[in-house]
Fold this sequence. Notes:
alpha/beta; 7-stranded mixed sheet; two-stranded antiparallel sheet; 17% strand
Amino acid sequence: MEKIRVDLGEHSYDICIGSGLLRAGKVLREKILGRRVFVVSNQVVADHYLDSVLHQLEGLDTDVHLMPDGEQFKTLQTLESIIGDLLAKGHNRSTTIVALGGGVVGDTAGYAAASYQRGVPFVQVPTTLLSQVDSSVGGKTAVNHELGKNMIGAFYQPKGVYVDTDTLQTLPERELSAGLAEIIKHGVLADSDYFDVVEKDIGQLRQKDESALIRAIKGSCKIKAAVVAQDERESGKRALLNFGHTFAHAIETGMGYGQWLHGEAVGAGMVMAADLSARLGRCSLDDSQRIKTLVERAGLPTAGPLEVSTDAMLAFMAKDKKATDEGLRFVLIEGGIGKTEIVQDVPVSVLRETLEAGLRLCE
């Protein structure tokens, strides 16, 4: 087991990465401070891994809540169901919530932990590649609103993150590709050498090669942990982690949650962000094409859906939570892969060109 520290003072914690963590001893027990545990998962994940988690929690008073599977269920209604179950079963502030699943489970269970009795401890056990390299790290918890993704939530750090790479062996190919989007993103925004490694390993990653997966997960978690340590609540540098996400969230909102996986939308969003960077002269056409090629090799879409028009994309982007009183903010490449910055004053005419070029790719 390898550990990466997320250094946040009294809110610091470790990301533990390894093969067979859910089978090895009782690693989860070290983060359970009381006698009560409330595991949140879904039936798909529970069928594979719930027994292993319950074995680690033997001797504790443990309840299980299975929420529906899918982004469309990342809602206030699901949150209310979790909190209602916590209340019905008599859980209190000494209870630890364990989120066992992908990003939807982690985000929703994490927000329940942040909200229940004004905050109870929680532990992340991410079982998808996307959640292992992104959503489980950094303390962003939220549910969606029909007018915008992740609009209702809180910054609330877990007590620990346990990444068992064995869970990826049961992951469908589409879900694996969705996780590769965030891995590519970390290289683009902060580390060109890491981007080179991902480029070299992309075939092995899609074949679920254990060494390549551990290498990619460690690299991504190190990048994200370093950024979060500098800016826990996204008041500055952490916003760079949203490279491609302004486009991606508009796609997800426009299509309806669950139609596109988050990573698929991020893949297309990164291609659009790179295209916009090149049109504004902030990076070369070669860099933009290199990103598009890697996104395609990862099995991800390289353009937005025809079902969401340019005008609709612009309208959804205007409601994005990263927008400010001064208007839309974009994370764009600045000089080359591995260097990004937040840009406020993007001409709408150039943004339209990027959106329309992306739509033409779908035709």
